[in-house]
Here is the input.
Amino acid sequence: MFTAMLDGWRNQQLARNLSFGTVESRQRAVRAFAEHAQALPWRWTPQLVDERCTDLRAVRRVRRSTLRGYQEAVRLFCAYLTDPAYGWVGECEKRFWYAPGAGGPRVERRSPRSCG
Here is the structure.
């Protein structure tokens, strides 16, 4: 299901005329977050976001601008998943009893503390 979510998000971004490079970069960031968190979107929490950001900044020493790019990718993916137009909330509730965004990462633009 995660792959279907990513495919749908890819299509949404391409329909908005974003470059293939931008779309691929964002998808890599979201996949890396999911791998680091060892969880799929319907299980993401703010704590997982904080852990990922801390790892990227303190351990991997990524630049602030790079971290903001990762944060923006996760934020946009979560916005896509929780948009009623795409139906992912209902599908996740039906299959897993959890919905993406339910207690998941709350990502604010330019927030130094949140990762997505």
In short: Helices lie at 2-15, 20-37, 46-59, 64-82, 88-96. Residues 107-116 have pLDDT under 50 and may be disordered. The chain is about 65% helix and 0% strand.
